[in-house]
Amino acid sequence: MKKRIITCLVAIVFIIIISLGYFAFQYNMKEYHTLVFYFGKVVNEKADEGPFLVCPFLNTTKAIFTGERLYDLPITTVTTVDKKNMICDAYVTWHITDTKKYFQKLNSPETAQSRIDVAVYSAMKNTISSLSQDEIITGKDGSLCQSILKRIDVADYGITVSNIDIKVMDLPDANKESVYQRMISERNAIAAKYTADGNRQYLEKKAEVDAKVRQIKSDAEAEAAKTVAEGENEYYSILADAYAKSREKTEFYDFWISLQALEKSLANGGTYVVDENSPLYEILNSKTTVTTPQSEN
Asked: Is the N or C terminus of the chain more exposed, i.e. has fewer CB atoms within 10 Å?
């Protein structure tokens, strides 16, 4: 009987020891902070990954995730400095920086997100209200988000917003049509300017080419006239040399030149007055046929 009692006591003690060991040893995971409580009051905080000891039944623990969290913000309407409303859809990433303060003031991700809503909206409103619509559009390269991020302050709650990104920054549907029409007008004005510049350059080039063509044509006509004149001079020089060898040929040459002059003067019609004493008058009134003298052998 006594042996059974001792066996039972040993078993009970062993169970108690196992239970104490189970409750005394705790493990803190990566990206978690574990708060240690003593009758509801925070007495310790474990930040490093690994096991640690607590006093069973006197201490309680609570593990809180301290890594990055993603929060998709509600869609909000903001007003620019030029009094234009814009729809903003954004998200933030945040994490806990002070676990004790977070537990005491928030104690849940939902409460933290409600505080973030207020802080981000305030920062976004203050930033965008100082910018024009054009500045906001050009700030989509990241500078706008950085300006908003600098204004977000939630450190009093033991948390921090590490990043903000705007998914959509757009106009309300009521304003889109007027903006589209303005953009179309601006693009049409740019296109008209390009067209006018192109036409101006075309006319300038055309004028330069036309001037060169006229100059080339004028030079060619002058050269042609010069060549014709030189040919005629050579022609008449040859005739003069040919008919200058005898009086008869010389007289015929003079007569031939006179006929050519008469022909040119009467080419366009008109009347030609000839003196009766002129040899030309006698020839024109003569019934005889004028024959060209034969060349001497």
From this structure: C
Task: Among 54-58, 79-83, 108-112, 261-265, name the one with the lowest average pLDDT.
Answer: 261-265
Q: Is the pLDDT of residue 181 over 70?
A: yes
- Domain ranges for the chain, please list them: 2-64, 69-171
Q: What is the mean pLDDT of the chain?
A: 82
Number of H helices, E strands in the chain: 8, 9
CA dihedral over 64, 66, 70, 75, signed as positive or negative: positive
Give the bridge partners for 289, in sequence order: none
- Return contacts of 151-157, CB within 8 angstroms, 24+ apart: 151/122, 151/123, 151/126, 151/127, 152/92, 152/116, 152/119, 152/120, 152/123, 153/119, 153/123, 154/94, 154/115, 154/116, 154/119, 155/97, 156/101, 156/105, 157/101, 157/102, 157/105, 157/106, 157/112, 157/115
Closest CA to 101 of 155, 182, 143, 151: 155
Dihedral Cα 193, 197, 198, 202, nearest 10 deg = 150
Give the architecture-level CATH label for domain 69-171. 2-Layer Sandwich (3.30)
Cβ neighbourhood burial of 4 (10 Å; 0-12, 13-18, 19+):
exposed
Q: How confident is the model at residue 194 (pLDDT cuts 50, 70, 90)?
A: very high
Q: Residue 246 — pLDDT band, cuts 50, 70, 90?
A: low
> Distance (Å, rounded) from C-alpha 171 to C-alpha 184?
16
